[in-house]
Structure formats: C-alpha cells, structure tokens
Amino acid sequence: MAEADPAPAYRALLDAVDRLGLLYLHLTDNDRCPALAGLVPYGRSFIANPDLPERFACGAPLNTTDERHLCAHGGRGRTHHPALRLDLCSAGS
Question: Is residue 69 within 8 Å of residue 78, measured between CB atoms?
C-alpha cells in the first residue's frame, strides 16, 4: 500500500482485527506513520516459540531463534523448537 497518510487506514485495520483475537499481525515499519509507533514485533519470537503467550504469562525462558533457517525450505527452523514444559509454568504459580 502506498498511502500519503496511512494512519487512518491502519488504525481502522487494527481496530477491526482487535475484535478477532489475533495473536500476530505483521505491519511494515514506516517512520512517516506515527500511528504505528510503540508496536512491538514478535514474528521471529513466535517462530521459535509457538507458545509465546504462555511463556510470557508464566515467565518461562524463550527458545533461541535459529537465524540460519528462518527463510529455509522445509520445516527446519519452524517446527523443531521445543514446546513449553507445563511444569515450568505450574512451578511458578
């Protein structure tokens, strides 16, 4: 998209998808759009930690992102990360 002022379009988009309960939305960074300031990207963290919200909720450690396989063909880098052990969360509760 090429918008002279993308703020209204993106604000409407964010308001609409907020009701959907999405876990992830990717937006491109653009210094000309202050409406996007303060958003935090989690894409790479979600690849290495498909259970990222649960890890944040209980303060569990994060898997390290395997940079070598982010854009590789096949599942390596996307499907080989260990899931959160439930005992890590229940011990902190």
Answer: yes
